[in-house]
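Please fill in the sequence for the structure shown.

STRUCTURE ENCODING:
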């Protein structure tokens, strides 16, 4: 018996990217059932169209790829999501995989590899390279800041002193120092400057 056509939902805030992907996938016999340029539209289409696989851009606003992945899997715990990204080291990628995405692909991926990944994910497999799996494990083990540590880090990025951070967050200066020490340890940074550089690189802090 012939295999059922895989039904795909494309989610990217750049129309040209969606259209290019749609053309490639249609040319390989897949059915692009819907396209969305933002997370909220994607959620609506997901519920209406029940696609086999959703391809989601990592960097979108106001709902990014990781947040959308979580939302899709709240609707359907078996939702199959492939993250689409420009960079393979962004914190958003790791967040998305932890949120339950089945795979990620770079935007310059070849069509054969993309189709192969979609088929594997549709069949219920996770497609994650050994390198990314190892990095993911490291991030889960040591990189997750607590909400308070994230607040302290944001204050440090704004150039605040320990005393100013304490006044901003209504905590003691000693508590701030303890949080800073924990942040340096989790980011494997020797000082605040390096911690901020690492945080920006990994997407823990965003430029305005």
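FILLED IN BY: designer on duty
SEQUENCE:
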């Amino acid at each position: 018996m012939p295999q059922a056509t895989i039904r795909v939902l494309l989610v990217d805030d750049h129309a040209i990217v969606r259209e290019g992907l749609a053309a490639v996938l249609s040319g390989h016999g897949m059915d692009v059932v819907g396209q969305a340029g933002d997370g909220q539209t994607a959620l609506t289409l997901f519920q209406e169209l029940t696609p086999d696989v959703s391809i989601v851009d990592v960097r979108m606003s106001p709902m990014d790829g990781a947040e959308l992945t979580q939302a899709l899997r709240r609707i359907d715990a078996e939702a199959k999501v492939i993250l689409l990204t420009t960079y393979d080291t962004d914190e958003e990628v790791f967040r998305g995989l932890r949120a339950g995405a089945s795979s990620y692909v770079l935007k310059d991926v070849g069509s054969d590899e993309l189709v192969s990944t979609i088929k594997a994910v549709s069949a219920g497999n996770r497609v994650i390279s050994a390198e990314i799996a190892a990095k993911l494990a490291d991030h889960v083990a040591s990189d997750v800041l607590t909400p308070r540590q994230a607040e302290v880090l944001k204050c440090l990025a704004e150039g605040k002193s320990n005393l100013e951070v304490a006044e901003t967050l209504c905590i003691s200066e000693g508590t701030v120092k303890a949080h800073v020490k924990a942040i340096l340890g989790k980011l494997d940074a020797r000082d605040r400057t390096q911690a901020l550089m690492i945080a920006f690189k990994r997407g823990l802090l965003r430029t305005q």
